[in-house]
Amino acid sequence: MNGEALIVVEQLTKRYGEATVLNDVNLKLGSGQVLVVIGPSGSGKSTLLRCLAALEPIQRGTIRIDGTLAAKGDEESGAGPDRASLKALREKVGMVFQQFNLFPHLTVMENITLAPRRVLGMAPAEADILAMDLLRRVGLADKRDVHPERLSGGQQQRAAIARALAMHPRVMLFDEVTSALDPELVGEVLRTMRELAEQGMTMLVVTHEMAFARDVADDVVFMDNGQIIERSPPAEIFAQPKEARTRAFLERLLEREGRRDA
Amino acid sequence: MGDFQWARILGYLPDLLRGVGVTLELGLISASLGLVLGLLLALMKFSKVPVLYWPAYVYIEFFRTTPPLVQIVWLYYGLPLFTGYDLGAFGAAAVALGLNIAAFYAEIYRAGIVGVHRTQWQAARVLGLDLKDTLRYVVLPQAVRNVLPPMGTTTIYLIKDTALASAIGTLELLRIGQLVAVETFRPVETLTIVALLYFVVTYPVALLIGRLEARFKVARV
Predict the structure, then answer these.
(1) Are residues B221 and A91, on separate chains, in Cβ contact within 8 Å?
(2) pTM across the whole model
């Protein structure tokens, strides 16, 4: 998939002041693939996603998405992405956040139609049809005129997914999107994400939901200390992780899940 | 009511009401000027570009640390001397009060914008909204809710400060009140009625702000 990779990250290094958060990360992801990123907190997985969404400047390396330059190390020579390529990038990449980040003063419908209207110049009627279509897909058609405060966390997160999809992104980034939810609301959000994967969306998912990783991911990446330690299909990484650090992390995680289920 | 002569003062009510009109006009013009200029100054103060940031910084500090009465006098007497352009008493007072209140509004806007969580900016950015649309559709509508109470208080101050225009002879409410008091030798009754008339002008502002607050009240998500 070398030539046709949708996401290409090369030698990415990201620092906050003295602290190196991402250290020489290389990553490729083909169109229609689902990559799940796991790792302990502080391992840099959320930062990786934020870099892919061009929300963070990076110090070294390059990120390309669908051929568009998303970021380039600011310590290196050569131009970074210009206005036009950043604009193109925004239209290709959708992102969903842990805290939903819906716009509280707008209805669900207005949350979804805002960007298509303002960024893509879509006519209001057309944007409404698109939004209703998406709301039906995420099971929120009856909530169109409600403000986010009136929705449960799971509903808010599904509305946030619909909002991101309204821009017809090529790639969807999910940053611990179920971590802020009550346990009984996690399932409905994961179901929406599963359906999205089945429809062929390219997805990069940071999560602690191992069942989701096992069932949906094409590959699982384990990160620690700002580096990618291991990348394997889920069947392999869960059954026989290559690296000791991966094994230790998974054991800790499964132990905790066991306690939670007990 | 002892020696108080309310009825005599009420005979001057038509004059006093004309003063109310001028006070209202002064308040309306200076508040409008202040609201627009204040927003501009607030946005400039967010800029990392020195030629935008520093003028806004100096402007705000200058206008909030010097007395508005002096600013009115500067504009009324100083401007014609230096530029040959004469705004007249009403114009000088309206512009000076507007320039003054803009500095206070600017800081209120700034606090309101800062109060909008940065994740809202990020969500807008990821969706591809540019700065103008992010401000217009995402940040400012939420900031409005934060700024309404201090905006109301500041605007009420402004309306009362229009009385400073009396110093350069603008025939607004307080100035007319002073003239009536001199003519009738009844300062207490006259100024009490003047105070009541100020209340009649400012209280609707308080009511309006209260209604706007209710309208913009949206729970944080």
Answers:
(1) no
(2) 0.83
